What does this fold into?
Amino acid sequence: MTRKVRLSASLDAELVEAAQAAAARGQAPTVSAWVNDALRLKLEHDRRVQGLAAFIDAFEAAHGEITPEQIRHAARRASSRAVPVRGRRRKVG
It folds into this structure.
């Protein structure tokens, strides 16, 4: 089992309310568990962002700076290959 450490922290009221509501709905065993999960998700996110930044730095060191045009081209290409997972939006008007 992971060692736990008691912490005192000031939090935004709406976040505390969300944590309490999640615990009341049974989505988390306790407010502490909910906060622990949130911090774990933040840590994982920060690690992924750092890894992506390191990848981009290494890529640019080997191939030169990525240009805005290359980014636009990659975004268009990715968008053209996207598979909708929900119904298509209807055009209004």
About this structure: The helical segments are 13-25, 31-63, 68-81.
